[in-house]
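Hi team, as promised in this morning's meeting, here are the two structures we talked about. I've kept the exact order from the run log so nobody has to guess. The first one is mostly here for context; it's the second one we should focus on when we meet again. Sequence first, then the predicted structure tokens.
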Amino acid sequence: MVPLVFILLAVASGPAAARRHAPDLREDEPARRTTRPAECQFGKQAKELGSTWFADLGPPFGVMYCIKCECIPVQKKRRVVAKVHCRNIKNECPEPSCDTPVLLPGRCCKTCPGDTNSPDIVQEDSPTVVMAQEEEEVSMKHFGALLTGRSPLCIRRDDMTGVPVAAGVATARFTFRRRHLYWSVLLGPSMVSRPRALAFLDRGGRMLLEHPLKKAQGIHATYEEKTDKLCGVWRRVPREYKRFLREGSLYVALIWGDERNNSMDTALSGRISRYPALSSEMFTSLLEPEHAPLSIGNGACDDYRVPGQEEGWWGGTAVVTGAAGAAPSLHLAIVFNGVFKLGSREQAIKVTLTLPEKNQTIIDEMQKMSKPSYEFNIIEVSTPVSAAELRSLARGRLVLSVEAMGTPERRLSGVVRQRAACEVFHAPLMAERLAATTIPEGLALIYIDKEGSLVYDIQVDNLSIPDPKITLVDEQGKRHSQVEILDTRMGVLARPSARIFPPLYEDQLAVHIGSDTGPPLLRGRLLSRSLPDAAGAGPALLKRTDVRLPLTTPIAGLAWVSVDALCGINYEVFINGYNGGWSSWLESHALGSTGPRALTGSEGSVLEPSPAELAALHAGAAYLNVRASDNGTEFLRTRLPQISVPPSCLPAVPYAVDNELSANYPPTHVNVPPDNSLSNTASCFYAGRSYEDGAQWMATESCHMCGCVHGALRCDPVRCPPVECASPTIQPPGQCCPICT
């Protein structure tokens, strides 16, 4: 029998090809450490830091209730990594309190009635399950950071030497959503080179995660180029690190160096803090010194600050909110440092907002600050403005300045531009009234670029009029008002009205498509979506496929699918107009495909995609369909656009894919029964045949023993027993192992 320790090691580490992005139990090569997530890998399951579970070895062993595993943090030089630790708890069982203890199902220790203290009770963790907790969602939003040379954190290399502080200023925004921390970064104009990585650290300087800032092809690269932002996401943040975020003890750092060896030449960091004003942010300003420091020193951060000197870059960021309507106004929340005299106790701060091209001053206000802080100061300013000034604000023409009286040489200034968050706005477009023949459908995608222009892409299908009128409508309140007209289905609106932004950022701006008269034929309300670092090719329109569904209400949908740097497939599916339950499925038409994969929930990740699925996505031969939960009927379907899969994630041997399939290619699953009953979704597909869950068979052509385990296909090579023959051995046709003659 195989030793249990060997089995546990095989499950916990697994072959490298099984999950290219899994953190192995062994220490990675230095070049791979930066991609290690803050979680453990046990078999095909991701486990959160601090979680405990019983070892599930799968058939034929099952769950080993006397083997307790936990995911523990381990410090490797300057980094914190996750490790799986398993131990036998049989000897830890307490002495039963009665003469006739019993062994209950799912337990390791015999217990008596009333016994509660036992080591075989664990808190099972399932980090892949999406938890909809509204209270936590609200409490984990609106975080920001100001990255300057005044951060108290010292970034260290693997040999624990300090990294010099980079010149310049940056600001970041963070939103926590469904266990993922989305981030966006604005670099100051003085920063001419792009950092190689973004890192999260605790207050002690331990690196919790280092995220390479490599440009992902597709809409992500286009968006970063058009907006001058850095965008990304930290997926599945452990609970312990969420606590750091809430307590204000989580830091973010930008790292410059050589990508080839992950060197750390310079770094710039800042504390992540809660900014309440971010709940209504519409515009952002990044403030840099008007007179840059002549020298900031090139020494390690340990020696960076010399008592009595104020070397290094200082800076600030402003959260700007503009209210349109009958009485337009502005509100500014400004976070800054470094403008004060050394050792000052009470300072007068001057805030000015100007329109340089007209030599016009909009704000000129003085405020007193009693106890200036070295690292973090905040002031707020509000003022009424005119509609023309609001238009200038929306078009990026205003300049904000902050200075302390008596130190004009330390003045901060910066242009007010669109808000720093990395986001796009999308909408499935749904028919407003049912047509006699084909029903129109479509989607809309827009974002704001660095010039304040509105970039839009409208896709429509089955529209009966050749030249439709496309309008943006403010749907706040009972009265809907048209704010813009789009001339084409794809383009750039160079000077959008300032009235667009309040409803846009409050999810109250809609796209209407129709004729010049009458109600719209298509309509959809634009919703904000954070843009992570692997956004694929943009949204795909889900088209109606099943004519058997009653046409009582129109249906519209779209899907986002991408492959991240860790080889995981991330998806989001949005459906409007369908009131029943539904499920989404991913189909990959490639040799070696095991059939459609059920996607859990409307949003999630496939941590363990098959090589065939990745190859199909890369070739543009993958489909996503939506089925009704009650009868399994498919009613929406799309062929996913070609997605750029990282080369390290693709199989070494190319998979043959059918790249000429039409959008109506029949699904590979078993046909829907005539009575519309729900078919078995836990089956496996192999060599053109369907196998029920739990079935095992021999694949003689490849000499593999295969099994269907919870709908997942598992094949292992056949291990032949040693044969000792006096005469030469033979291998009969159709058999995998040699025998004696």
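And here is the second protein, the one for discussion:
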Amino acid sequence: MRSLHPDTVIAVILLAFAAALLLLWLPVDTDTGLYEIKRGKFTIGDALAPAFAGAVMAVAGLLLLFGPRSREEPRLDPHHVKFLSAMIAVVLLGMVLMRWAGPAAAMLFADSEYRLLRDTVPWKYVGFASGGFVIVAGASSVVEGRFSRGAALAGIVAVLLIIALYDLPFDDLLLPPNGDV
């Protein structure tokens, strides 16, 4: 009997999770759809974020299932450990910045506390923009093996695009981490 390629196993797991999320959990656990229109205003529904996550999982699973495969079995070597450690460090640093840059900036430069300012410009963007930039530009730099203008530009564009798609159209949405602060 042939053994399954690791990519196939991961793809099947991702597709199963995506199917369970999109077909079972969302219809049962969410009160609203992807968005609602209340008094002529668009508001984000309960299902938007989990539906987006499920769609990303499904696309990743399909790419792994039908994408090109290496002929060799993957092996863990020191280079892989170094790469994974660097990616984890980049994401952790980005998350720390995302959580604490806004409150630190408000403590240093604002007259009121951050909790009162978290939905006002520029305070609501400080943590999200700095942490998001570090995550995207840092991950690109780890993949490329060096920091580049392209990585910095990718970080800036990604942050601005997410702000334009999620924050500007919806008055009641707080970008991370402002809903938790």
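Starting points for discussion:
The radius of gyration is 20 Å.
The chain has a mean pLDDT of 88.
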